[in-house]
Each structure stands twice: as structure tokens, then as C-alpha cells.
Write a structure and sequence with these properties.
The complex is a heterodimer. The two termini of chain A are 44 Å apart. Chain A has one domain: Orthogonal Bundle (MetI-like fold), CATH 1.10.3720. Helix content of chain A is 74%, strand content 0%. Chain A contains 15 helices and no strands. By secondary structure, chain A is mainly alpha-helical. Classes of the chains: A mainly alpha, B mainly alpha. At the A-B interface, α5, α6, α11 and α14 of A face α1, α6, α7, α8 and α12 of B.
Chain lengths: 293, 327
């Protein structure tokens, strides 16, 4: 409840939340918003926008608007699933390393560091090149497998600072098992960090998945924004002047990404008062100055 | 000294992990892409190339896995990456060398510019808290960070290339131009670099600005800054010598690391603009199933990052005494 009120009070958070809600609606009920079949190649090719075809048609004669609407689901599923799994693995590894200490910490921390410095996008490209035509599940798996290290390191240092607190000593004295202490005692205290990590990871999942699809490493028959961009590029849509074919899916990705980024930024402001805009403070200072004069 | 040695050990370990990943990935994939691919190439390529492919995929070699592995490591350390299948008959190392040149020029210079500009904007934004720059820049930059940067490149092509016809948008120079250090050719190359460089700049500046702004905000709250103000020092001196100088330290490490990411960091920009750098070549290799080239480029990108991180660590140890005693 307090969280909802904070979202409503922060302009950036409100914008982000509304954007995200719209995309979730589109992903859940695409049929309500688009009445054409996104895959049917039955219309004249490369049409401009019209009342019949709001965004025109593709080089294969599909309705671009229907494609954009139906494409929402896959991106959103990838964003939420990869964002969630990445954060969960990161939490498990990071907190376990910090809490267990010793050899566990050494091993897990080394694993995290190694994965952290191997360049992510080239690695994704190489894996996807061997897999061929990655579908939704493969994309989620690959993004999760490669993407957890940064969050794990963040959560580890946060957990390290909690390690010697009394409530953990108390739990230990009660004879609780390590898994219980990690899941019930430590993780809830880090909920704000976890939410922020989830939002960042979801944003990266959107961008990376779309990028892989754009260069033709996704499933070329999938309904997704990245695949739409792939076909636009293949069709040389920009050079031929069919700019909506590239504009629409790119703008959709940017808007969804912006939703996650805005929520994350606002979340930063809500949890870290030092970063909040200073408008209020300045006004009082100015008033104080006036009264003195 | 112990710090540097430990970092060097980490460097070697990570290098080994990357090499090993490169070795095992094609062998772990389901459905064995090797067999399908080699039957596709058979008859079209010479025995020598077939041998290269066989070493990469580890089929038909009659060797056990461990001995293949040793053989593979030996090849890497002697710089023997085999022959490129797509750019036949050029050896992989020659293709790679050509690609590095373009990437270092385009992405390297852009990375340095982005760091300088972004840090400058961050300093001013934090110094004038609540001013125009501070209230407009951060939210704009946050939204910009969510835009896929290859798409920014596509929009640049559309606006400045196709619509306005101001600048060329494909390749590193006109095909008709003769390479050399002539004024014409260099001008042509620069012209071709403007659009990809702008697209890269716009999408990378934001990160530096945000980090610098947030660092500056915490530094400005320090006592020594208040002390400087109390002494009545000119504000430009407080801003640059007292606050910015300390706030930029953590950024320097990031900058050194980003220099490592230069080699593989603009894959999609190069792809969109058909710029013949490392990233473009990597995607060409993937598209044409040129696995020897792909493996070599992936290793190159990884090694560049690792070297940069090692150097950044050493530089930090030299410049920031606080880290020397850490752990």
C-alpha cells in the first residue's frame, strides 16, 4: 500500500507504471486491440498507413499494427521471466556466498567475477549461433544463464553488511538452518534492492532479446518486435522509404524499456532521498531568504 | 604488489574459462550442428579447411577429448586460428587484423569523446542542482538508456541519410575510393564515420553523466567542500579541483574498462551501418557459419576486456592508495 502511494506521488513512477500496465493488457488480450491476423500474408505489400491498416503493411503483406500488438506478448514474457530468474539466481548465489563465507564465498564469488567480465552480448551471439533459431524458452534460458552475475555481486555486498547483525545471530542461536536464515531472515531485508535488480534485469532482457532477434538469431517466424525489425532490415525498408516497418517495433521496444527504466529510476529516488529533485528544498530556501530581506 | 599479483591470477583464470567455453560450446550443443554443417561444406572446400572445421567441432579427428583440448590450446597460443571459410582463402588472423583497425578508429575515439562529454555534463548537472541541466538531463538520459542503440542508428540513417541525404550511411568508405593517406580518402572515411559515431555517442553519454552526477552529489556533501566554500574559494575551483576531481576517481576505472569493451562494444552499430569492424565481422561469421572466424573474434573481444580490466586494476592501485590495503 505504501509502495503504491509512493508510485502515485512520483511522476516518473506513475508514467512507468501506466506504460507497463498498457503493455501487460496488450500482451494478455491482443485480440481486443487488433482484429487482423498478424501472420496472414494476404494484403498488398509495403502499404503506407491508412484507415484499413493503421501502420500500413509489411514487405510480406502482413498488417503491421496487428504484428506490433501481437508481438507484445513474447517480449513481455521474456522480460518478466528472464528478469525474475536472473534476480532469483543472483540472490541465491550472492547471499549464500556472503552468509556462508569461507570456501563457499571464495568459489561463488570467483564464479560471479569470471562471468562478470566475459563480454555478455558477444557471448550471447556465439551461444545463439550454435543453437540456431532460438525460441522464447531458449532465449529466457540463455539470458538467465549469462545475466545474473552483476546482481549477484551487488546483493553479496549488501548481505555482507548484514552478516554480523544481532537478528541473524539470534536466528542462528535458535538453531535455524542456513537456507531458512537466507530465505526468511536476509532476503526480505533486501526487498528494495531485489525490486530494483528485477527492473534492471527485465530492461536488459528486453534489449538483448530484441537485439538477438534483430540480427536474425531468434526464431524468424515468431511474433515479436525484434523479429519485425529483422524483417524490416532484410527488406531494406528504410532505404526504400517504408520507414514505419522499422519505426513501429523500435518505438515499442523503447517504450517498454522506458517503462522499466522510469520505474527503476523512481524507485532509486524513493529509496534514496539524496537523489530526489531539490525543488521543494530550494523553494523553502528562497522563502527564507525573502523573509530575511 | 600482492593486489596486482592476485589480479593477474584472476586474469589468467578468466582467460582459461573463456578459452574452455569456446572449446566446449560447439561440442555441447544438441543435435550436433557440426555434422550438418560439414556435410554442407563437403565438396566445396579443400581438405585443409575441412581439417580446421574438424578440429573446432572435434569430429572425425580420431582423437580423445583431452588430446583435442591440448591441441586446441596449442593452436591458440601459437596464433593459429585456421582459415576463414567466408573470406576464403584469407587466414582468420588477417581478416581479424583488418577489422580491428576500423573498430579502434570508430568506437575508440567515440568512447573517449562520450566519456569526456558525459562527465562534463554530469559535473555541471550536479553543481547546479535543480537547474535546467539537472532537471532535464537525467530523465531524458534514463529514457535514452532504454532505447535499443541499433535502432537509434537506423533512425539516423532514415533522417540524415535517406531523407536529408547529408551523409553516407553504409561501409567505412566509398567502394570507388582508393585507400591511402590522400586527403580525399581520409575525408571520405571521416564522412562515413559521422553517423555511426553520432549514434554511438548519443546512446553512451547518458551512463557517464548519470554516474558522474550521482558521484558529484555525494562528494559535494563532504566536509572538505564545505571547508573550501567557507574559505571563499572561487566556485569554479571548488567545482573542478575539490568536488569533480574526487568524484571522477571511480569513473576512471569504468572508463578504462570501457576501453576494453571498445573492441566488441558496438556490434550492432557496425551491423546497421555495414561498418567492417570486429562486430560486423562477428555477425558476418555467424550468418555464414564461418565458425573459425567467429571463435577467433569472440576470443579477441574477451581478451581485450580482460586486458583492460587488468590495466584498470593496476592503475587504481597506483592512483588510489585506499585500494592497496583492501582485503
Amino acid at each position: 500500500m505504501r509502495f503504491l502511494r509512493a508510485i502515485r506521488r512520483n511522476g516518473k513512477a506513475t508514467t512507468g507504471a501506466i506504460l507497463l500496465a498498457v503493455f501487460v493488457l496488450l500482451a494478455m488480450f491482443p485480440g481486443l486491440f487488433a482484429h487482423k491476423d498478424p501472420n496472414a500474408e494476404i494484403y498488398p505489400r509495403n502499404l503506407g498507413p491508412s484507415a484499413q491498416h493503421l501502420f500500413g503493411t509489411t514487405g510480406l503483406g502482413q498488417d503491421l499494427y496487428a504484428q506490433a500488438v501481437y508481438g507484445t506478448r513474447q517480449v513481455l514474457v521474456i522480460a518478466f521471466a528472464a528478469g525474475l530468474f536472473t534476480t532469483l539466481i543472483a540472490a541465491a548465489v550472492g547471499v549464500a556466498a556472503a552468509y556462508l563465507g569461507g570456501t563457499w564465498d571464495g568459489t561463488l564469488n570467483l564464479l560471479t567475477d569470471v562471468l562478470l567480465v566475459i563480454p555478455l552480448f558477444p557471448l550471447l551471439i556465439v551461444i545463439a549461433a550454435y543453437v540456431h533459431n532460438s525460441g522464447t524458452v531458449v532465449l529466457i534460458a540463455v539470458l538467465t544463464f549469462t545475466g545474473w552475475s552483476y546482481t549477484a555481486r551487488q546483493l553479496r555486498s549488501q548481505a555482507l553488511s548484514l552478516r554480523n547483525r544481532d537478528f541473524l545471530a539470534a536466528a542462528k542461536a535458535r538453531g535455524e538452518r542456513a537456507i531458512y536464515i537466507i530465505a526468511v531472515e536476509i532476503l526480505p531485508t533486501m526487498s528494495s534492492l531485489l525490486v530494483a535488480a528485477f527492473l534492471t534485469n527485465a530492461l536488459y532482457a528486453v534489449l538483448f532479446a530484441s537485439s538477438l532477434q534483430f540480427v536474425g538469431l531468434g526464431d524468424p517466424n515468431a511474433n515479436s518486435w525484434g523479429t519485425m525489425l529483422y524483417w524490416a532490415q532484410n527488406n531494406e525498408a528504410l532505404q526504400a522509404g517504408y520507414y514505419l516497418q522499422a519505426l513501429v517495433p523500435g518505438a515499442a521496444i523503447a517504450l517498454l524499456g522506458a517503462a522499466f527504466a522510469l520505474l527503476n529510476y523512481a524507485f532509486d529516488e524513493i529509496t534514496n532521498p539524496a537523489l530526489r529533485p531539490v525543488r521543494g528544498r530550494q523553494r523553502t530556501r528562497r522563502l527564507a531568504g525573502l523573509s530575511r530581506a | 604488489m600482492r593486489f596486482v599479483l592476485r589480479r593477474a591470477g584472476f586474469f589468467l583464470l578468466t582467460l582459461w574459462v573463456a578459452l574452455t567455453l569456446n572449446f566446449f560450446m560447439p561440442r555441447m550443443m544438441p543435435g550436433n550442428p557440426a555434422i550438418a554443417m560439414m556435410s554442407k561444406f563437403r565438396g566445396r572446400i579443400s581438405g585443409q579447411e575441412l581439417a580446421t572445421l574438424e578440429t573446432i567441432f572435434g569430429v572425425n579427428s580420431g582423437q580423445s577429448l583431452p588430446s583435442q583440448y591440448v591441441h586446441y590450446l596449442g593452436d591458440i597460443f601459437t596464433g593459429n586460428f585456421g582459415t576463414s571459410l567466408y573470406f576464403f582463402p584469407s587466414p582468420v588472423s588477417q581478416v581479424v587484423r583488418g577489422a580491428i583497425f576500423w573498430t579502434l578508429g570508430l568506437v575508440g575515439i567515440t568512447t573517449i569523446l562520450a566519456f569526456l562529454l558525459g562527465t562534463g555534463v554530469g559535473i555541471v548537472a550536479a553543481w547546479r542542482r535543480g537547474g535546467l541541466m539537472d532537471s532535464v538531463a537525467p530523465p531524458v538520459l534514463v529514457i535514452a538508456s532504454a532505447i535499443p542503440y541499433f535502432w537509434v542508428g537506423m533512425m539516423f540513417i532514415l533522417i540524415f541519410g535517406v531523407k536529408l541525404q547529408w551523409l553516407p550511411w553504409s561501409g567505412s568508405a566509398d567502394i570507388t575510393a582508393t585507400p591511402g593517406w590522400s586527403l580525399d580518402y581520409v575525408g571520405n572515411v571521416l564522412e562515413h564515420a559521422v553517423l555511426p559515431a553520432m549514434a554511438l555517442l548519443i546512446t553512451t553519454i547518458g551512463t557517464w553523466t548519470l554516474i558522474m552526477r550521482n558521484n558529484m552529489i555525494s562528494t559535494l556533501a563532504e566536509d572538505y567542500v564545505r571547508m573550501a566554500r567557507a574559505k571563499g574559494l572561487p566556485s569554479s575551483r571548488i567545482m573542478l579541483d575539490y568536488a569533480a576531481r574526487n568524484a571522477v576517481l571511480p569513473n576512471l576505472t569504468g572508463f578504462a574498462m570501457s576501453l576494453g569493451f571498445v573492441v566488441g562494444g558496438a556490434i550492432l552499430i557496425e551491423y546497421v551501418f555495414n561498418y567492417p569492424g570486429v562486430g560486423y565481422m562477428l555477425l558476418q561469421a555467424v550468418e555464414n557459419e564461418d565458425y573459425p572466424l567467429m571463435q577467433a573474434l569472440f576470443l579477441l573481444i574477451t581478451v581485450a576486456v580482460l586486458v583492460a580490466i587488468l590495466l584498470a586494476d593496476i592503475a587504481t592501485a597506483v592512483f588510489d592508495p585506499r585500494t592497496r590495503s583492501a582485503q
